[in-house]
Prior knowledge:
- This protein is of the alpha+beta class.
- It has 13 helices and 10 strands.
- It has helices at 2-7, 9-36, 39-42, 64-78, 93-104, 169-177, 181-204, 211-225, 231-234, 241-252, 256-259, 264-277, 333-339, and strands spanning 83-91, 113-119, 141-148, 227-228, 261-262, 282-291, 297-308, 311-315, 330-332, 340-342.
- The strands form 3 sheets. The protein has a 5-stranded antiparallel β-sheet. A 3-stranded antiparallel β-sheet has the order 1-3-2.
- The chain starts with a helix and ends in a 9-residue tail after the last strand.
Amino acid sequence: MKNWVKGHKKILILCGIALAALIALLAVWQRQEFKKNSIGNTMPNPPRSEEPFIDTFYLDQLTEREKEAYDALKTALDEYKGGEVIFPEPLTGLEFTRAYNALEYGADDYFYGMIGIPMTEEDQNLAYKNDDIQLVEDPLIQKCLLFLYCSEGVDINGSIDEDGYVTNLEELKDPLAAINEERMAEVQNIQEERDAVLNQVVADMPAEYGAKEAIDYFLGWMDENLILQQPSEQSQGITAMSDFFTNLNFKSHLSCAAVKNAFASGYGRVLSDLCNRAGIRSHVVMGVWSSGFMGSSQESYMLTCVEIEGEPIYVDASGSHKKQLLDQRYITEEGAMNWMDFVDYFTYGEE
Length: 351
């Protein structure tokens, strides 16, 4: 056998080259077929609703007790009242998670607020020794802290003992509730600029555009007007809570339309908001995206779900994964669930 190989080395090399070329041609053909039959090229372009939609996808899934907590948090955010937020009824870890995430990923843009430190009535931080707050199965969460970028005390550190008790809560309450006028003016400027930009994008779009044309238009606008950044790069050098807001939060919410720099989550939120404004029902979806060989690499990610003729279609708004998706941004629900594990505390699709 060895002698045969030595005597036919050129033939083997030529066969290897031919096989490699065949594999390459098959890959190109598969790529072209994928693109030709992708949902982006075949999805319909129905007329848009004449009225805008308000995203209540997550709010509608809350129980009454979760809605009460949601309302308490929303009121504090709307009224810029940072510090301690007390819930009408104590919550389990899952209820707390659902209540604050319904706010975080809902229609309102609370880029200036962060909900954290779920506590018992006795001021014990239940997240201190629980990496996953959902593991708290008893209704022990009576309150939490709301941090506002525009708060005087946003950079004051809490003091927690070895059992997780917040020992300086009384000292934190007033500074966290007090407003810093300079940062408040910054928040208001971002809000005004954000609304002006988003309203103008919809106003500039040709009125006759159907749903698919509108989404393509919005994706094109984001490609030209937003700069994609990575959270891992921007998190370096954060030494205070106020840095967390400017380096991360402002770029992951609708506020990115004003500051121009955006993470993939900012793109997802902007696309969803524009769609709802333009009469295309939409919401964002959170989860973990798997990439690399056999899904070896995982990252937190966000897709935008749009409803076209009653069917959910998922959009990679930032185009961060277009290489894996062969330059496509539109994914069927089945495809989205193959690529991404959606968070398990809300219901999606036919689950």
